[in-house]
UniProtKB/TrEMBL annotation:
<protein>
    <recommendedName>
        <fullName>DUF7144 domain-containing protein</fullName>
    </recommendedName>
</protein>
<feature type="transmembrane region" description="Helical">
    <location>
        <begin position="21"/>
        <end position="43"/>
    </location>
</feature>
<keyword id="KW-0472">Membrane</keyword>
<keyword id="KW-0812">Transmembrane</keyword>
<feature type="transmembrane region" description="Helical">
    <location>
        <begin position="114"/>
        <end position="131"/>
    </location>
</feature>
<dbReference type="InterPro" id="IPR055568">
    <property type="entry name" value="DUF7144"/>
</dbReference>
<feature type="transmembrane region" description="Helical">
    <location>
        <begin position="90"/>
        <end position="108"/>
    </location>
</feature>
<feature type="domain" description="DUF7144">
    <location>
        <begin position="23"/>
        <end position="132"/>
    </location>
</feature>
<keyword id="KW-1133">Transmembrane helix</keyword>
<dbReference type="Pfam" id="PF23636">
    <property type="entry name" value="DUF7144"/>
</dbReference>
<feature type="transmembrane region" description="Helical">
    <location>
        <begin position="63"/>
        <end position="83"/>
    </location>
</feature>
Amino acid sequence: MARRRLPDGAPVGRFAVPRRPALLAGALVATAGLADVLSYLGLETVNPYVVMTGQGMVELRTTGWTRAHLLAGVAVLLTGLLLATGRTWAVLAGLGVVTGAIALDAMFLPFDPLHGVLALGLHLGAVTILLRNRGAPARRPG
């Protein structure tokens, strides 16, 4: 008896998400994670944010936010690589990690709007792909 296959040729029961959407979602998430890591590595040693007040300039220290973004960026990058496998647990872990990264990027949006909008777009695109193509792993016939 011939095994059933998904439209992209992967055997049924092997992947929870069809291969191409999983690769695309993984690439989007990994790209967003790499952008987080690279952009916030540069902010680790400097504090580029100041506020002008009546008494002068006040420097805003964002080291904690920067380190949080670095950790989230590494987690998102690794999750993006795992998402490309299309496994059920990777999809669920990816949704969790990306949801946390979306929250973190949304909180830091006023300080870095360009990076925030780009990262949010990549994250939301990946979540949309994962949610549209998720599903229980198919059972083998018989």
